[in-house]
Amino acid sequence: MDQSDAPQRTRALHWIDSKIDAFNRNQLSFTGKHLEISMNYVIKDENVTIAGIKSCFYLEEVLSIGVLFVEEGYRYKGLGSMLLNKVEQKAKAKGAKLAHLYTFDFQAKDFYLKQGYDIFGVLENCPKTGHKCYYLKKSL
C-alpha cells in the first residue's frame, strides 16, 4: 500500500467523496443541486466561543447533527436548545423531514430526549466497555 503525501491524500479523499456522491445520486435518482449543505453555528461571549453546532442537511430531506457542544460554565442556559432549534428550523424550511444523531451515555442523551428525539438503536460497550452509544431520530 502506498504512503502518499498530504496533497495526494487530499486528492484521494476528494476522489472517495466524489465517487460515493455519484453513487448516491444514481441510487436515489437525486437531481437536486446539493447533496449536502453544512449548517454550522457558534455562540460567542465577547470574542470567546462558548457553544457551537456542526450539522449537515443532506439529500434535501435529512438533518444530521454531528456535534453540539456548550462550554461547561454556560450549560443549562438554553444555548444548546437554541442551536439545535436553529438548525432544525433551517433544515425544515429547506424540506427536511427527519433529523438524526448519536451520543454516548456520558454526553447528552437526556438533553436530546427532552428535545423530542427518540432512541432507535443502542451499541453496547461503545466507545469503551461499560458505556453505550445511542442513536436518536426526530421527525421534523
Nutshell version of this structure?
The chain has 140 residues and is α+β, with helices and mostly antiparallel strands.
Secondary-structure element pattern, one letter each: HEEEHEHEE
Q: Can you count the beta strands?
A: 6
Q: Give the helix/strand class.
A: alpha+beta
Give the fraction of residues assigned to helices: 25-40%
What share of the residues does DSSP label as strand, in percent?
35-45%
Spatially, the strands of the biggest sheet line up as 1-2-3-4-6-5
Gross morphology: globular
Largest sheet, described in full? 6 strands, mixed
Q: How far is the N terminus from the C terminus?
A: 45 Å
What average pLDDT do the residues reach?
A: 93
Secondary structure tally, helices = 3
